[in-house]
Amino acid sequence: MLIFIFSCHKEERIPYADVDYRIYLDLPEFSDLKTPGNYLKITGGVRGIIIYCYFTDEYRAFERNCPYEPSNPDAVLDVDSTGLFLVCKHCHSKFMLSDGSKIEGPAKYPALQYGTYLENNILYIFNTY
Question: How far apart are CA 31 and CA 11, in angstroms?
């Protein structure tokens, strides 16, 4: 009789963080965020949030915690010098800033994206899961 032992490897996921923010785009500190292509880092989420102006009235918000080895304190996403990609200096995973999809690297998942909604120059950022 043969006995097979399978090891279960639990995949690490980015921990849940309650995200419910209002960004008042009329305030001077957020005015640059009205221009497509611009982005801003804010505190919140697990390791911070990157808000990206995709089009004039369309925004993306991404968790800065890299989905590859998210418990590693160095697994943090930043915008690269081109302003088109999110990159992790720890694992070298690369993601599209426009939608969070993975381009290269060991990450199995896209960058974690939060929901956004714009109303009367107030940008709402919230959990979608």
Answer: 40
For residue 48, the SS3 value is coil
Q: Which of 65, 73, 60, 72 is nearest to 48 (CA)?
A: 65
Instruction: Enumerate residues 6+ apart whose C-beta is below 8 A from 57.
Output: 118
Residue 77 and residue 109: Cα distance in Å, rounded? 13
For domain 20-126, the CATH architecture is 3-layer Sandwich (2.102)
Q: Which of 109, 62, 118 is nearest to 85 (CA)?
A: 62
Contact (Cβ atoms closer than 8 angstroms) between residue 61 and residue 127: no
Rounded to 5 degrees, φ, ψ at 72 are -75, 125
- Alpha-carbon span 111 to 63, nearest angstrom: 7
Q: Are 77 and 51 in contact (CB under 8 A)?
A: no
What are the tens digits of pLDDT across the range 4-46? 444 455 678 999 999 999 999 999 999 999 999 999 999 999 9
* Cα–Cα nearest to 39, from 28, 52, 27, 58: 52
What predicted TM-score, i.e. pTM, was given to this entire model?
0.90
